[in-house]
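Section 5.1 Outputs to date
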Amino acid sequence: MWKIAHSSYRLVDRLRTVSSQRNTPLIHRAASIREIRNLSADFVRSILDTAGCEYLEGSAYGKATFDIINDSFANAMAAFDASGMIFESSSLKRELHLSLLAHSLRKNMARAISVPVSDGTETTGNRLGSSFEYPIDVVYTWVNSEDPKWKKDYAEALAQFGSNAPPTSSDIVRFQDREELKYSLRSLEMFAPWVNHIYIVTNGQVPQWLDQDNPLITVVAHAEIFDTDLDLPTFNSHAIEANIHRIPGLSEHFLYFNDDVFLGDWCTPETFFTKDGKSKYFESDNLVPADPSITDLPSNWAAFNNKRLLEEKFGYVAKKKFKHTAHAQRLSTLKMAADHFRRDLDETIVKKFRHRSDLALPSNLAHHFGNIIGTAVSADISYRYVDVSSVRADVELSRLLLWDEPTVFCLNQVSSRLASDETEATMIRGFLQNYFPWKSGAELR
């Protein structure tokens, strides 16, 4: 199924590209997202100049904007139509969303690189859907299971502590790296270029493709955020999460990403935060299990433990789990929650692998705690989840590539699957390369 979808995608995309190029400049496959954005803005500028339009040029949330300030909006529309540039338009708002990528099968890519052009009747902030004024950082957690030192430390910890944890907590697939982080960073630059700073939390490793000279990216070692080296090395994601509020310089508002979470459509800060700065959390339809031992998944145990503590301390009933999305956070709320549940979190932090007694702080407990103290609210988001270890993974990835348009999606691996590692890796990387084909500023050139 994946091979069929992949072939269909490439064929249709090629046909649409060729049929719509006409006078638009060609985009080299090695171009970066920023280069494409600049190329788009230059092309729009040249069309407006040729059409004799007077306009004000600006920028908002990472996109160039053009506001036509006379009555020549109709001339602009005709000029863009003659150029061969396909665009989305709104006759009610007298607004165009123009893109060099609009010929792509992925409409979301067009939205990501598009340049809004309007008759100036609305402010840029209103047109792009946000008036949020606070800087928003992003925190990733990442590991490379192919690193020789990591393998040695993992084998030693597994021999000493592995028998005390659920089998799924030490399954090697949970640590495998198929360069998901690289593509997640591409999705971030495509669909949320307004992000202030990116922190990548690792056990000291650095991705080979990462440009460490990029001033917008900081790699943070576990040793920088853990209280004591006695708790390191750790292979417990809950323990790492319980310490991310200790990252030096982290902004009050930030998004916490696992590297298997991707943006799939244009976002604004208000996708994740209210106008007055409250964080939004996205509940799933899945209920917190009454008996986590049925699946013995560490995430279910953590949700169960969180629920028990919240009921004991606040009489608060946490019924639902959360979607595997980017988790919006208030640093002050996270610190308060960490202090309030310090004794229980300390038990999580000392566990080398995810354990039945764990708490999940930023991805669960902090959302409920924020709701209790009034700094977080429940919201909804367009979302897809794909278990890449499922026998239906190829079907789900095909749908995601060809038809679905979620704001956020997650490619999670619950357990080892029957397919070979090579086959699975080819499928996942092929999907990600097709969905996010252009380099971000995080990558070496």
